[in-house]
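User: Study the fold:
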Amino acid sequence: MEKIYTAERFADGFYFTEGPRWHENRLWFSDFYDHSIIAIDLAGNREKIYDVPTQPSGLGWLSDGRLVVSSMTDLSVMIQSDSGLSKLADISEYSSYWTNDLIVTPSDFIYVGNFGFNLDAFLEEKGQEGIVGNPGPPKTNLVLVTSEGTVRNVASEMSFPNGMVVTKDNRTLVVAESLGFRLTAFDINERDGALSNRRVFADLSSYFCVPDGICIDADDNIWVANAISNEAVLVREGGEILARASAPMTCFATALGGADGDTLFMMCAPTSTAKIASVNRNGAIYKVKVK
């Protein structure tokens, strides 16, 4: 039987929040249209960490503690330095449109997705029907960036690669293919970060789920933000839904954190459409215990 949770409002006053990560006892995340990286503790105290005029998204930390950030509009990855953030890598060779989420593995492999096309313009022209039509939206690549800044393509024909997680044995990368309505898994080569054995971790098409930001629990089950719904769903490999958590607005990303690692944070907003989300601070973060 599915567990059902209802989240409560934790913080608000944001434009559009993405890339949530629990780090050093705070929730870190990006606010696209505030062009900032923010950290907030459980008491609600918030701090702006960096301004990122080129619009931040995914966040991660190298083993030496340096923050890395996907910089959306200039198709790059930035890295923390003594003077702030500087460009680590340009991924435009493999990215047709904005840089998207990223993840950093314990071996310091940085996997980065991108939109592949202008989603808002596509929807204005073709509507929702264009997403599932033939030939459908353009495909794109998943790229690997090293801590030294080298870049290579590690997976092609991806349908809007979005949130990513790594299983607890550090051997499997799972990617939310938003417009493929699935979670896709790869084996990680421990030597060079290459990806192989591409397979479906969970087909979410029958649940009407557009997987966006994701996070993984201690049992390697994945909390999936459904970008066309006000809920997140907990998915087991194979596609079984184990739990649902609801909020009053559409959920675009998830993170697990808190003192015991069992608080689910849901990054919510009324819409992801840029021309609306960028002018109204209607975004909010919700949280709920999910033991």
Observations:
- The chain has a mean pLDDT of 95.
- The longest strand covers residues 195-203.
- The helical segments are 119-126, 129-132, 274-277.
- The CA atoms of residues 253 and 266 lie 6 Å apart.
